[in-house]
Amino acid sequence: MKITDKLSHAHASEQAPPTFSFEFFTPKTTQGVQNLYDRMDRMYNLNPLFIDITWNAGGRLSTLTTEMVNTTSTVLGLETCMHLTCTNMDLKLIDDALQSAYDSGCQNILALRGDPPLDGSESTGDFKYALHLIKYIKSKYGDHFNIGIAGYPEGHPEDEGDQAKTIEFLKAKQDAGGDFIVTQMFYDADRFIDWCHKIREAGITIPVIPGIMPISTYAAFLRRAKWSEIHIPQHFMERLTPIKDDDAKVREEGTQLVIEMCQRIVEAGVVNHLHFYTMNLEKATLMILEGLNLVSKQQITDMKQPWRKSLNPNRINESVRPIFWKNRKFTYIQRTSNWDEP
Ligand SMILES: Cc1cc2nc3c(=O)[nH]c(=O)nc-3n(C[C@H](O)[C@H](O)[C@H](O)COP(=O)(O)OP(=O)(O)OC[C@H]3O[C@@H](n4cnc5c(N)ncnc54)[C@H](O)[C@@H]3O)c2cc1C
């Protein structure tokens, strides 16, 4: 189903609570892929509106996205959005990815340009901007796919602070067929709210899905903010810096800060959906969802069970492993001990 249709249904009533979704990236190892399928499947019990899987241009990892989207859509039955970049790639790879998504029932594509090569050379390929990929998808598939586009509340680094220019190109992507916007991560709620008002004034009407990055460690928090060239508000630094060497405290305080940021943007009425960059982990995202009262303790407990709850009324409250698990060669604890492996 299309993400915009799901959003409309979920928010038919203005009182409906915010919905949410999870981003995952393609793991480097086969074991990592299997671990991630288990995690996606379990996190789906939290009832996200959809999940999405990032794209890596070049090498095995780009075809891995296609394979994973096929598995999550076909085998796991998860509503999936496939990221697809268009520069530095053969047209055939793009065609194959779109056809595979089409065949597997995936109806959502986040159409991206991709970053230029790290060595500073010119990008290659049939497309120059995400805009061209959107037009291409439309020309081949009409309205079959719901097309997501990337938005930058604090500007794209290549636009050198020219916000009007970034918004103008965002509008061009909407006008070419973009159906929803997924944003770059941010921590400054005020800047984000201001940007939402500006894009609406510029005639951008499609839903905005804010990218929320949980805070797990102090070093990762600073590193990601630096990579993305986003502003860190003063109160984040004041509350995190004194505890920077204690990971558990940083996660707890960081969670509280992100919860406050989410509450603020929802209360401002600019968004009704939150998109979490899970980094393929679940704890930090879960803590935020729990703090926002978007999932219950029971849902989290159920999610942690290594089997699906019985629908049989006589067995619905069982909290011990069903008998067939005894035949497994390794225990659940052994098999899942490295579930955080990326
Ligand atoms: C939510 C999100 C998810 C992402 N997922 C991935 C991923 O899975 N894989 C990956 O490799 N990267 C991913 N990226 C990173 C993305 O590929 C880079 O940020 C890239 O530099 C820009 O992609 P874009 O689609 O925004 O490009 P574009 O919209 O094409 O914009 C790129 C730059 O060109 C300018 N521009 C746009 N159109 C025009 C035009 N017509 N004329 C002149 N200038 C123009 C823009 O203002 C901007 O500065 C993601 C980014 C976001 C925000």
Automatic annotation (TrEMBL):
Which Pfam families does the entry mention?
MTHFR, MTHFR_C
UniProt entry tagged with the keyword Membrane: no
GO cellular component terms, alphabetically, are:
cytosol
**Transmembrane segments in this chain: where?**
none
Among the GO molecular function terms of this UniProt record, one is: FAD binding
Looking up SUPFAM superfamilies in the UniProt record yields: FAD-linked oxidoreductase
Q: Which cofactor does it need?
A: FAD
Domain MTHFR SAM-binding regulatory as annotated: residue spans = 305-341
Q: Which domain of life is it from?
A: Eukaryota
- Gene Ontology BP annotations: methionine biosynthetic process; tetrahydrofolate interconversion
User: CDD domains from the entry?
Assistant: MTHFR
Q: Which UniProt keywords apply?
A: FAD, Flavoprotein, NADP, Oxidoreductase
Pathway(s) the chain acts in: One-carbon metabolism; tetrahydrofolate interconversion
The family database entries (InterPro entries) matched by this protein are listed as:
FAD-linked_oxidoreductase-like, Fadh2_euk, Mehydrof_redctse-like, MTHFR_C
* Recorded family membership: Belongs to the methylenetetrahydrofolate reductase family.
Protein name (record)? Unnamed protein product
